[in-house]
Amino acid sequence: MATDYDVIIAGAGTGGATTAYTLAKRGHSVLFIDRKERDNIGNKTCGDALGSHHITQLRDLVDIPELPKGIVEYEVNGIDLIAPDREHRLRMEGPTTTGMSFNRLKMGQWFVELAEKAGAESMASTRVKKLLFDDGKVSGLRVSKEKGPDKDITARVVVDATGATGVLRMQMPETSPMERHIASEDRMVAWRDIYETPDFTFDTPDYLDIFWNQDETLGGYTWVFPQGKNRVNVGNGVMTIKGHRNPKDIQNDFVKKTWIDTWGEVEVLDSSGGVAPIRRPIDTMVDDNFVLVGDAACQVNPIHGGGIGSSMLGGAHAGITISEALERNDTSIESLWKYNPRYHNSYGGKQAALDVFRWFLLNITNDDIDFAFKKQIIKASDLLDTSMTGEVKFGAGEKFKRLVSGFGKIPLLMRISKVATLMNDIRAVYLDYPESPKGLDAWKARLVPIYEAAKAA
Ligand SMILES: Cc1cc2nc3c(=O)[nH]c(=O)nc-3n(C[C@H](O)[C@H](O)[C@H](O)COP(=O)(O)OP(=O)(O)OC[C@H]3O[C@@H](n4cnc5c(N)ncnc54)[C@H](O)[C@@H]3O)c2cc1C
What we know:
By secondary structure, the protein is α/β, with parallel strands linked by helices. Helix content is 37%, strand content 24%. Helix 5 runs antiparallel to helix 7 and helix 11 (410-431) packs antiparallel against helix 12.
């Protein structure tokens, strides 16, 4: 059946725009739609920080050009993880921690322009309302503009890149193998302010600070990301577990007293809240004629909440896989399936391992974290390796056992050892993702005991 486009992408954030760019560059007809005005796409509540390796990885995969001047506001060399006692810190520093704090709107605009220049058609100020189905399979979208009647647009493949809401994913039928709803405990809510600080100078704006404090930001953290000597992006995020506090209240109370008030007079440049999914990726990110990308596919790092790089990676893998499926003239779930293992091999396996670690972090106290930092139980280099690959080299082997016998807090150390094993277990399950949808249920069953153990660890 003839369709209006090969592919329609709902959402023109970093995930949707990368998908559009990848497909248009391969010669497919692509429409990408966003509810925001064209000049405002990319403007979003964010920490505005990104590791440079994400851009390099994207360049290798889909050949994007150099970032133009004006997007990067400050080069970053590393991240300091700071214990609740604020005396002990782990400096994460190395080739993989170099990065940037950047102008969010300019970055978003650049990605949209890239896709447009490659030949994708953009449609702004347009809300995607409804998935259309033909014979039970996705066939297009109903969209609405501020003025005029709703419009139906058809495509061979529809991509949901609408961000944390996953507007289209939620409309999939119950018979779909794709999960539609995200549990509340798998979401992070956050608040952040951007300030000019004329009375205060950040000495090391090339290091980003992440502060843990379980009493204030259980399961999350406060970030202080300087954007130069006299500007800062400061915020906090918490998991939406039962009884969680509102991050705006935390910002106006704990964060204000502890950091903001120490900077003298500040000028507010922006102040807003946001949501991100914090979990492993959606178990299958494809169905017949339908694909998920970015936050809609839960492609966010569950520990630090960064999702720009992984949404671009997801967009690139999705674009490549959809292109291959279009060329085969087969956009069934089987034909699109390869997107799942492609993403999992490059990021999803690590994401799942970090999700297991997230559950462990929820169950430890400030005292435990202070102890772990003080005794240097986990070295920065180990943590860096784990954060890049998801493979855990700490907490196991003879050396760790000797360490355990030398310290108090045996239960904590044993728990670290246990969680390290679980992280490696889940990563191995991800690297053994089924080759076709037929294996999905059996594969999902392998995740259950790992999560049960992680939540109890
Ligand atoms: C407070 C906060 C701080 C963060 N800080 C960082 C950080 O420092 N670094 C980092 O890497 N990540 C960070 N993240 C995560 C990051 O912002 C996301 O993971 C990333 O933007 C995901 O990209 P996306 O394209 O999937 O979604 P989005 O960037 O959210 O894009 C989705 C697009 O879809 C559009 N849309 C939604 N619904 C509709 C509809 N019905 N019709 C039409 N269009 C629609 C939206 O307008 C939007 O443009 C942060 C998240 C939060 C909440």
